[in-house]
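Write out this protein's structure.
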Amino acid sequence: MWTNRKSGGLLLKAVSHFLKLRCGPTVRTQCPRNPAASGPPWRLLFFGTDQFAVESLRLLTLCRNSSDGVVEKLEVVTLPGDLPVKRFAQENQLPLHSWPPHDVEGQFDVGVVVSFGRLLHGELIDKFPYGILNVHPSLLPRWRGPAPVFHTIMNGDSLTGVTIIQILPNKFDVGPILNQELHPVPNLCSAEDLGAALATRGAHLLVVTLRKLPERIANKREQGTAGVTFAPKVNKSMSWINWEEQTCEQIACLCRAIGSRIPVRTTWMGKTVKLLDFAGKCSSSAQRNQQPGSVCYDKASSCLAVRCKDGWVAFRTVVLNKRLTAADFHNGYLNQTSRKSGSSKGAEGQFVSRTDSAQKKVWTGH
């Protein structure tokens, strides 16, 4: 039925008066979002600390500033200190929250955690209608824990990936999987290079997941119990080489995994020696029957060659009180000590392994 403007206005007033009598005065409220029906753009609260997390935050910021309809609002929670995530947030005028965040209920749809290192309790998670997502750089349930990239390289894995999960209260890396993507590990790849590649891949997978988040949540799958491995923090105890037990490949993986942060170590004449600039497997002119730990200078490659379980490995630099080239260590220490002792096959030509139970677990892959 068509009405003119005046009669239409009278009709609207009558309907409004009836609703007020029946329902009370009108109150403007924000409707709760229904995970089964609603979708992006999302109001996001991001939790992160390091450079790995910055890559996801960077892409979310680009999404917020564009018209692609994924991110409507973006704010950041980080920890105290001069952290990469905090610097990025400040440079891009993203609102910052201290940990733990307050007054977030009703302000955000989804939380995103990337390399944050803090357990989240259920009361906080429940303030996000779609829960809190986590970007993890491994193919969960393999390598749960704070250092999956390092353990991927240390173990010699040829395949890894990134996983998007929902976070469970007070637990790390065990939530249901929303999305997962494979990533081959390049030959001779370092932990730093792999971490950078997975940071980029994880950021893109996060945005892909957010585009169809309700669908991903509806089709989430629980992590299985088969294939679970753990990736504890890297520490100095992992850096000791056991020449009798570790192969050339295992030593190479160890150096690529932690060498840039924690130099691999051994002992010589009762002193700790740091071995830098790993040069790979080498062929030594020394006698084939020399025992593991035997050390000599390889003039052709200007490297220090050390016998391990199944061959020889080479290093270009040694730290013994000060930084030395392989040639300097040979001429100033190995050669001189050997001459003083009058022997060419004594302790002065031998690196000695130092092992303990924690380190043994590392080089046996358990």
